[in-house]
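Quick board copy: two proteins, each given as sequence then tokens.
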Amino acid sequence: MSRSKPLTLARLNDSILGIWGIAPQSQSLDHLLRYLSTWSGTELRLFQIFQWLISLERTPQPTRNLLTIERLQGWSMLGYYPFEHLCYLRIHDVIPATVPSPASLLNPAAKPIKLDSSTLSLWSCRCWASYVILQFAHLREDRKLLQLQQRTLRKGKGGVLTAAEKQDLARRWDAYWSGLLVNTCNLPLALHWSIEGGLIKNPVLVDILGLITAVASFRSGWNATALPSTAPQEISDLVAPPIDLGEIAAGGLIVLRGV
């Protein structure tokens, strides 16, 4: 008589948050998602999030904590984009102010669903705020892994690192601190736009936070795409999903909010 495995938190995590792992592997489907991800426009970001979540389940992650964090971040983006798109469509009167409730299929007297652009915008920002908060946990795991890599390199070489290794560590630490700065500025903005009436009463402060975020994001992107000063070598990123959409989403939401 076989016994079923005990229901643990890890199994619930895999069954619910990691449900994208059941997506069948198909070259045609993967090709379609890659192709759609090349299209411009935020309305297609949702396809990129699907691709990220599926790839996340197929690629081993450095730690279990990072896997859980990125799963939650992916789900938060699945909430953000539909709310953001519905808000945009409602503002431009592309969709009506009310739509029939699914319950009306069973009960004709069911009340229709109201689509208020302000409410939709608030919920989209709340999903973004969830992502930003989770990013602090992600950065904490990034820091632990970077410190471990640094100790391992120094221990294995008697504390003497090559110029290339020093440059690589410096690049990674620079990316870490830049990411921390961007996320620290994003948090008050995300909370500000997640609360009706706003959290920050001084609009100049909102502009300053947005400017710091934009400059820091530009600097990070510029450094990430710079040609290496030494001979090219295979260097894998510290903790990057197969498609680095988490940071793209977090960095692009400021623009979508109109700052």
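And the next:
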Amino acid sequence: MARARSRTPRSGRVRAAARLAARAAGRFRRVAGQAVSASVTTADPVAHAAAVRPASRRPARPGRYRSRSPGLPVMVVAGLMALIVAMLGVEQVTGLSVLPDRFIAGLRPPPKKFPVLPGSPPTGIAIDRIDLRAPVHHVGIAPDGSIGVPDAARAQEAAWYDQSPTPGQYGPAVIVGHVDTSTGPAVFHGLTRLRDGDEVEVTRRDGKVAVFEVDQVQRHGKEKLPVDEIYGDFSRPNLRLITCGGRWVGGDTGYADNVVVYASLVRAHEG
């Protein structure tokens, strides 16, 4: 199935960054006003009373005026505004997140809308980018407490971890597969070639196809897996594709690392 993805032109991203910057500037102006007014102290008019010397009056010279330089708070806020504008521009152009979410809450565009599907086990997976078409069966928990893996005889099949959500439900649906066997490449041999924005289609038993968009591909040491990051995100329907990678160390470990594809549900259609 051909993928049709719209790309935001660079000029559109810059205009979007300018609009976000204007909103950020308004917010910082309000904050600056509150900060300056809150920092002004009022002296006791009795305790600090002093004689006032009348000012000498000189005729004003036409065409001349006395200017005052901006105070330190204004200069600090202006510097912060310039920094925020620059960083928002970087985010819009490169797609990289460089600002803390709490710091600019309400300034970023809302995330893409997504459907939520009822539970239904996966039966197949397709990834055009790496020419992958494979059936999906299921695995449970291995005797050592880890996620089970497909038998070597089914190395060209992927396996859904049946203790995770089904693809399209809230949370991370986990699908595992071998990278290779003693006879050659296996089902997930090409996962490291995936890039942000590539699509993964998972067919379900109810006939629906859940379409996920790749967010990132990471490699983690098997002894240092970020468990919460992989299994703990229930903010929306997600997908995790997991296989082996890195250096071969043999024994029960096999490869030293795990390759993890992180993807988010973007749409669904009938199969």
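Board note added afterward: The longest strand covers residues 254-270.
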